[in-house]
Design brief:
seven-stranded mixed sheet; five-stranded mixed sheet; 23 strands; 13 helices; globular; 2 domains; 29% strand; BirA Bifunctional Protein, domain 2; homodimer; Rossmann fold; 30% helix; alpha+beta
Amino acid sequence: MQQAQTQDVMEKIVSLCKRRGFVFQSSEIYGGLAATWDYGPLGAELKRNLKEVWWRSNVYERDDIDGLDAAILMHPMTWMASGHVSNFEDTLVDCKGCKKRFKVENITGKKCPECGGELTEPRQFNMMLKTHLGPIEDATSLTYMRPETAQGIFVNFQNVVNSMRRKVPFGVAQMGKSFRNEVTTKSFTFRSREFEQMEIEFFVKPGTDEDWYRKWVEERYGWYIKYGIRKENLRKREHEKTELAHYAKACTDIEYNFPFGWSELEGIANRTDFDLKQHMQLSGKDLVFFDEVTKERYIPYVIEPSGGIDRSILAFLADAYREEEVKGEKRVSLAFHKRLAPLKVAVLPLLRNRPEIVELAKNITNGLRKEMKVMYDDTASIGRLYRRQDEVGTPYCVTVDVDSLADKKVTVRDRDTMLQDRIDIANIKEYLIEKLA
Amino acid sequence: MQQAQTQDVMEKIVSLCKRRGFVFQSSEIYGGLAATWDYGPLGAELKRNLKEVWWRSNVYERDDIDGLDAAILMHPMTWMASGHVSNFEDTLVDCKGCKKRFKVENITGKKCPECGGELTEPRQFNMMLKTHLGPIEDATSLTYMRPETAQGIFVNFQNVVNSMRRKVPFGVAQMGKSFRNEVTTKSFTFRSREFEQMEIEFFVKPGTDEDWYRKWVEERYGWYIKYGIRKENLRKREHEKTELAHYAKACTDIEYNFPFGWSELEGIANRTDFDLKQHMQLSGKDLVFFDEVTKERYIPYVIEPSGGIDRSILAFLADAYREEEVKGEKRVSLAFHKRLAPLKVAVLPLLRNRPEIVELAKNITNGLRKEMKVMYDDTASIGRLYRRQDEVGTPYCVTVDVDSLADKKVTVRDRDTMLQDRIDIANIKEYLIEKLA
């Protein structure tokens, strides 16, 4: 099998996503809402699975990370402390002709790239989405929809230390929605105004931060490989000093070779003690860590592996996309890692007009429901049913045929090899659980 | 064991939630943000578990429901169609003295309940949180943070039918954040401005709606019982005709007997064809369902079981809370259903100054990590360690003692019975998996 290398692979993925229920344009019946997307039935499962493996890798399988689930709405002082109120800005120009707005960095020359009209002077524009809490809309009720989940962790640093008796080094992991008022959005779900993050803030003793930074770069790179991204499509890119955000001492992006070019999936940053210091200063609270063993007091440094869930989903989709010739026909499949596949098993009756076969197939389906996401389908011929399942990345198809009634066996077909096994119905659950483990 | 019936049980739960990392006030270091809450490490696990059992019950174990994960930001026309722009209002009065604002329904007499001052005339106040997308803040960029997840399902009705080849009856399940600009907030996490919903829109043929409505009331009532709410603390309350929302033909609330009184956990409403009709009208799109077998065309009726995740968590916490006397000491425990318990197992060395015991305990912990959420703790005496785990509802404690080094067995203690089993270390994983299943 080889990855489809054609230039239109992105269009094919977008089309497949819509047709098969991975991703829909948000509020599509109203013409859509710019740069927001809805996950359909299979996309919702894919996203759930991705979030589950991330959480398990970090919160369950490690002993040095706790989870957190902080609110999207935070006290506005949070964003003063973090620097977002003063620094989180795009520089924009307007076209005096067509009234469109552009990022200065996307303008070459001094004319509007769309209509050739005259442009205004550049202006600063804060990218946080605003809202007002309470009945009166004024400065005192102004707050923001968080532009990153990270700050929810920093403001809870002492709460986690106290409630979980944590000692540095330890981390806090969080997944959740963030919002940015992006002017330029692009490339399907890659950059959207509403997006989901998976972030860890890992607190370490100053002086050990460079070691931990390197460890986390390797850890996170390995995670994408483990769940199926091919090595040749993944790279680490260390930021130049001039690229670094105001809070960062070092940063490495993990980039994926999307059909539209190499782009960031996740950034691992050494945020130093910037955030905790800022919050100490603005809140007046003591966020110094006291080490009871060494009797030292310090503000921890922070290593932040910050990944985008939506763009990871897009990368896993793109990397899994396969086109090949099988017996003269084009076969499209999504070779997802088994843990990520939205449907684990499809149960298919070979003959849908034989009630005993249909009944047996339905019974098998129901017997699997508690253990895995399973689908029953009898709405087409077997060849077509296989193609449907290949196209959404279902690792195994279980086919019930006439022989099954007599020999109490079914055929299990592997998505990637297309090889078939004949398995006792009595053992099918255990067989699949083991295959999917 | 008996439920703590004291009036201060709510205060005890709030205190336990903060101290043990279930729930923190949002942005607490800045004095908090009114009516928003953060889930700490154990609260985040409890919430994950609750969401997981809801999703599995509805999307995995049934064959007639698909999942969805739609965006929080939707096209503003959505809220014209749903009636939220014109109808989702509180009627408020201001005090001319202390400037506080109140819901009219909470005012008895014509004076301010806080300072006795004079009140203004009542005014309407829309409860949706507003924001602006794009760089210009005007009417054309105005949109809302969704006040309910339901509409994300309605606008995707045709997308789900088409991509999943669904036939009525079928449902769509979704969990996610919603936002309401509540003026009166109360009772800890029960009513907050940012909250999470678990909603199903179940589409049925008109005429079958009353049957399905009754089925769903029973189904959802049974779900809370299944996961541990005691029958005496749960009741169904059917709405009077005068109470019904503008879109509903019938509605039943499932109420829990909170320490602050009987209050709604979930509402099951017969929303008729109101929403789909409205969206057809405003979008101009055809949302009529065509039944290929009977050749009928109709707009489905909708039965909506709509539950609050945060208030369910609070109910499961309150219902699990136990105080009892054990050997002259007060024991506090959270008797969570095993599926909901944030930590499944704690591994505790009896003697923390014996390196072989500590090492063995850590090895056992690491051997369990991939299978369940497990915690190692050696920071206190065994009695205290048990109390800590009881207080957060950990179903099993595994204790490693001196004998364990010789006989290769450990003690497993049950949270509820406090009975102890001696189990071979070689079998401990399977033993716990079976117990927790």
